[in-house]
Amino acid sequence: MFEQMKIFAKVVHHRNMSTAAKELDLSTASVSRQIANLEEKMGVQLLDRSSRKIMPTQAGEDFLSKSRQIIESVEELKNNLSSTNANPEGLLRVHSHPSVATHMIMPRLEGFQKEYPGLTLDLQVSERPVDLIEESYDIDVRLGELRDSSLIVKKLANSERIIVASPIYLKTYGIPQTPADLLHHNCFTYRPNSESTVWKFYQDGLKCAELKLAGRFHSNNSEIIKYLTVKGVGISLQTNWGTAHERARGDLVHILKGYSVTINSFNNGVFAVFKSARFMPQKIRSFLDFFSKDSS
Questions:
Q1: CATH class of the 90-159+269-292 domain in this structure
Q2: How far is C-alpha 221 from the chain's CA centre?
Q3: 0.85 cut: is pTM over it?
């Protein structure tokens, strides 16, 4: 019945049996049969199959809540029993911001896999924070300020935002000397949604400017913005670590160095977020220890 609980939770998450079956490496018919057997055991309908998307009934919602508690308890027990194992094994599901995955995780992934050969890493990337419980992730690697106090947080690395432009752009359009000068330049902005972006400037610890910039390009992907910046099309706000190679090669120049700048708060670190548990699973501890070494 425990496996049927896990199948049920996955079907509810995807609202689709075939998608759940694919993730579980089962046939759709097998998933459907397991759900039917589960409903028969419980003596109640758990899923409403009448709409285009499969939805849990009220009884299904109640069952799901209890099932998740049981699944988490069993997983925690398994992790506790293997917590003394110096060589953790199994699947580690990690979600990451794309830039962090590209510049911090991937360059060190070979070393991580050599050190922990028993671990299989499933790394998924997107610009949005994920729900660790709903989406079955062990760790979410995020940038900047964190708001969910129910999660455990470990800082993996420091991070600062800097304003950069290519030498070609600066030669053509001039070098901004103050934040206000940026209003006369083509500033690319990072927008995860439709809201306009505000760049906040501080000097000597005091706020000195807050600019709502309206350049001719914005995107929810910082790597695309950096690419266009290197090409000399405009100016952008980037992370210091995300532009280290380009600045070392001379493809990008850090401008307005006398100012601290951000788009939200100055808590600009790289953080690993994971669920609270009495005992931290060894596979999570291994990831945190490895990727926080020599990164601060």
A1: alpha beta
A2: 13
A3: no
Instruction: Work out the burial of residue 66: count CB atoms within 10 Å of its CB; fewer than 13 is exposed, 13-18 middle, 19 or more buried.
Output: exposed
Q: For domain 161-262, which CATH number applies: 2.102.10.10, 3.30.470.20, 3.40.50.620, 3.40.190.290?
A: 3.40.190.290
Buried b / exposed e over 83-105, threshold 16 CB at 10 Å, is eeeeebeeebbbbbbebbbebbb
Q: Domain 2-81 falls in which CATH fold?
A: Arc Repressor Mutant, subunit A (1.10.10)
Asked if 230 contacts 164 with a C-beta cutoff of 8 angstroms, the reply is no
For residue 270, the Cα-to-chain-centroid distance in whole angstroms is 10
Q: Say what the pLDDT of residue 279 is.
A: 66
Q: Where are the beta strands (DSSP E) in 59-118?
A: 90-96
| pLDDT (tens digit per residue) in 80-101 | 665 555 678 889 999 999 999 9
What's residue 147's pLDDT?
65
Regions of the chain short of the pLDDT cut 70: 51, 76-86, 145-149, 193-195, 264-267, 277-279, 294-296
Helices vs. strands in the chain: H and E counts, helices first: 10, 15
Dist CA 193 CA 214 (whole Å): 15
Q: What CA–CA distances, in Å, run from 178 to 45, 115, 160, 161, 289? A: 65, 48, 19, 16, 41
DSSP code of 252? S
Parse the chain into domains and list their residue ranges. 2-81, 90-159+269-292, 161-262
